[in-house]
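sanity check this chain:
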Amino acid sequence: MSFLSNNSNATPSSKMYFGRPNTSSGPEVVTTPLLSNGVSATQTFYIVELQGISVGANNITLNADAKAFKGNMIIDSGTTLTYLPELLYDSFKSAIEEELKDRDLEVKQDPTGSGLSCFLTKYDILPGPNVTFHFKGADVKLKSANTFVRMDDETVCLAFSRGSGVGTYGNWAQINYLVSDEGDVLYVFPRDYRAKLVGRSFIMRVEPLLEKEKAGAEYLARVSFGTTLIASIILVFAAILVALIAIALK
């Protein structure tokens, strides 16, 4: 995530927005405060307070000490998965599996070996369980595309993993959401972003071939120019020689 503003103050006051393009307020935009715990090692992170997670009717709450620093979730676009503290992850995973128990999905081992919760299915899990992250003052409802990630043709995994300490809200959970500090729109994945990536990949594959063709054409042009120049010089000398011979014969 690349934030547009860079406030050098030690204790900046700002909020993080989730909503539609070019909006910083309104019924479809929610905000949560950005926090700082005063520890230099975490000053480069954007930290927020996660108060709980809802999976269907199951509400998983976090009971934090009222005197403790409540920043418990880093918002990070450089991390793919969302990492939850161990106890929270276990409750979240159990709630997801409970919501999916009637889908007859076979549990499958994570093909990456990362210990993710995975299911054997050739189809996307649609509709997915209703998952809502309850940040302080902001309820962010995740879509199925934010909750699950396809690993291969037969495997779909939960896009969440077990972590420790402060959690990390990864970029997969942020897809198709606009995130901003102080209201500036930072990024959005368009609906056709996969097609654009494929198109860009095709261009990258073809580009070296085009460069080789270009180099070959330039080489042929130089050779043709040199050949033409030499031929012209020979013709000029031949013409001069013929003229000199004609004068000598007179």
In short: DSSP finds three helices and 16 strands in the chain. Helices lie at 86-99, 144-147, 193-249. The chain has two domains: 15-189, 190-250.
